[in-house]
Amino acid sequence: MNQIINSDLQAIPCILMRGGTSRGPFFLESDLPSDVEERNNVLLAAMGSPDPRQIDGLGGAHPLTSKVGIVRRSLTPGVDLDFLFAQLQPNKDTVDVTPNCGNMLAAALPFALERGLLPIKDGVTTARILTLNTDMQCDVTVQTPHGQLQYGGDARIDGVPGTASPISINFLDTAGSVCASLLPTGKPLDRLQVEGDLSFEVDATMIDNGMPMVLIRASDFSITGYESVTELDNNTALRARIEALRIVAGHHMGLGDVTSKNYPKMCLIAPPREGGAIATRCFIPHVCHDSIGVLAAVTVATACVLPGTVAEGIARVQQANVQTLSIEHPSGEFSVEIEQADNDPGQITRAALLRTARPIMRGEVLVSAK
Q1: Are 292 and 360 in a shared domain?
Q2: Checking CA distances to 25, which of 47, 103, 297, 362 falls within 20 to 30 Å?
């Protein structure tokens, strides 16, 4: 499977890809060990985890650059590709394949075409992709003029410098991706109580439309919700309260003890101030996101249009079955198109968005052969 470079290193083919505002190596499933524990050890070694700087691997010393994509031809009828996302951490030895990552998903089809898994069509190439993490399907479309991948273009996404070729993602079924349903408690608004030394109560919306999330008003924590990422990361008292709340919410959402899990994500919300639908500051989960994740944006947009959530009275939305919501974040905004059922505004039938992606480097990552 892998060429032995010398007595203690093995070479594994990969392409380092940027997907949206995330980055990490992509592998063919066939190039990795079939045993899960062995595979995870390879991924940890490839990324250089655990180490705060990930100095001995490809990781970028941040959760957004400690991600991995694994792709194969799909085994499911009607589906073209299977995609498995793995979240690693700089200073932990964990490989979490429970949640999705819509940013890395954007790079799955370009990677598959680069590796020849699917034929490239003239004009655009669309593939149906199954995310193995949560059994969710989506249609992804990339630009392929004259049968060639095109990475340059005019599409701009906040959090990424410059412009690139657009990649559209149409999510087909995201409700209850990890939790049992869109609203795990059955209610759009709950009063959560944290006991112990911190001891406080706060209103929250616990929701999962692609990413388990807890939405809370920034004003309930005596902040504006417009603070910089650095300000929020340095606010240790705030982070302690948010983490305590996250652990309580995990049990309410049916996720059990989430102390060592990367979800639910916590999102502080505030009225928009740049012409969007809502302002956000998301924690992923222990540091503030420089922007917002793809599926987090979908989930926040969903909360904005559902009646009775914590976003009611804060979000600026229209009374329409189909609308585009601009989700403001520290680096700019993220637009999500949301469609609600005609006869049931509480049912989200479609979520679509635009991302960009490109290969950064291709070759082989060298890891220990032991």
Answers
A1: no
A2: 297
